[in-house]
Amino acid sequence: MRTRAVLLATVASVSVLGIGWQLGTQSIEASQSLTASGNTASTAGTGSTAATDAAAQAAEAAAATAATAQAAEAAAVAAASSDTAAAAQAAADAQAAAVVAADAQVAADAAAAAASSTAGQDGTFTGSVVGTRFGNVQVSVTIASGAITDVTALQLTADDRKSVQISARAAPILRSEVIAAQSANVQNVSGATYTTDAYLQSLQSALDAAGF
Amino acid sequence: MTLDTRSTRPGPTPAATRVPTPVRPAYKKRMRLADTLQTLCVTSVALVIALFLADGGAADFGTAADTLTSIGIVTGLVGSDLLLVMMLLAARLPPIDRAFGHDSAMALHQQLGKPALYLLLGHAVFLIGGYAAAENVNVFAETWSMFGSLPDMPLAFLGLALLMAVVVTSLVVVRRRFRYEAWHAVHLLGYLAVLVSIPHQLSVGGLLAEGTIARYYWLALYLGVAAAIVTYRFVVPIVRSLRHRLVVDRVERIAPGVASLTLTGRALNRLRADGGQFFIWRFWSHGLWWQAHPFSLSAAPTNDSLRITVRALGDASADLPSVARGTRVSFEGPYGIFTDRARTAPHLVLVAAGIGVAPIRSLLESADFAPGGATVLLRSHSVGDSYLSTEIIELCQRRGAELRILAGQRPPRGGSWLPADAAAARITLATLVPQLRYSDVYVCGPRRFTDAVVRDARSAGLPTRQIHYERFDW
């Protein structure tokens, strides 16, 4: 090699390596913040699901109570006006409202029972914890009307920065593939073999528990 | 015509300092191309390391296991990159041939073989070690689990085994035991080795995962190399062979086992072949078609004919002197920079021995020089036993080149390329050619002869750019 070629090659190589190094530093910083936010997000995610459910139940109950209260109030007004027919009607209304409220309560109880038991068809089922060399993996699956509607990753390979990066990329791909395929028989995500294997294994155990 | 060593006056002792010679624009252009190609080659290695760094690889040296894994990834990347460079060097790319010549490209190809294999073996060893350390199992258990649980790993191990076979059969000691065709067949498995290693790079490697820029770069690299190989090793030679329709027109036996073959064809100017270049020929006759041989032009090419002078070797080329008239010939080429285009100095010195006289003769015919501007040195055992010597004498007279025939046995020791009496009288290239330092020296002959002449020229202080030689035993 001539001196000129050596110089050119050195300058080109050093700049390429320098750019690579800089990009790498940025990606490390980005993934460190990703690690932090990822953990919070996943907790918040499960938390918010629970919160939503609770809120829905509370709203339902509140609606039922409101309906009963309204009917009772109407009955009271009717009674005060001493209009017998109206009073009877109002009382019937109140009674019906109470029945509806009771029914709602029963339905809510049944739903809760279904969710907590594993024998039912619909609901959210949690898979087993699968260990890999990069950390544990566990997913839960939501089944509604006999179809997989959602898969939530409760734990993902997160032993190191690299694993967090890989699983953060693989999880959404796997989730959409599973929902599209409606089974745990989906393709390996390239570059995330360990995560894929463990994810699908945990998912399968959840589906087995659901009798899906 | 014979050199009388006793009457040759001893020339001035060659100066150690290099004398600047006027540099031709063609040389500058060729060197710019060479610099660019070398820079690209080195930068491609830097670039794959940069991909690793850009992925945050610099942070993955925290634990022993991480360090082993990271080293394994880097060696794999660099080793694969070198394999691609090697394949390009062997792909007969026109810019590479123009800048370095086919033999230099193949010499580098050969030199890179072992480093590439060591890097890829290191890739396997370090990654098995790194994974085993991370999982806290022994390396055998880890290898076994890689085979079973990771996708495409059996193929990757197969690729490594094939690559070892290719490199081992190419070691000089081992290669001598094989016929060229057997060695070449094993060598072609190198392509298979590269092919079967691709799936695991894309499926197991997190660095080349889907959606990353690195993956696109990597795929582009492989596709580019594949395109170059298909184009210049297959498409171009086939198209040229079909277009120019070369057939054997005349076979002239010039010595036992040596013949000049005149081949005729159409529009041969379009090949832009030059005196001193070689082609890889295939003669489509019974018993010969399965072998391809490199032979240099022994006459300046014309628009409708090419001539080669061949010496039968031990294999099927022994039948070449008896090849029938009208036999169809396919070819790859022209290749090589053993031509007038590589000139850098005003004077021309041509040194030939044995069948090496063939390219020297065509070079002498097509080179650009004024009468008195060239010296031809023909080395042989006894006067008159050089091949094509009558043609060379006639050409030298016609073009005004000085001819010296150096005949006699080589001295048993000392590594001189001259006859024993000349060597004893301390005759060198510099004393034979007074204007040596203003000359381009072209040497062609057996390997030991060529090496000795090149050594002589270097010790006379001739810069590398003024020494030209071509090797056929790559």
From TrEMBL, chain A:
InterPro entries: FMN-bd (IPR007329). Residues 133-210 form the FMN-binding domain. Gene3D superfamilies: 3.90.1010.20. One of its GO terms (molecular function) is FMN binding. Pfam families: FMN_bind (PF04205). It comes from the Bacteria. One of its GO terms (cellular component) is membrane. This is FMN-binding protein. It comes from Cryobacterium frigoriphilum.
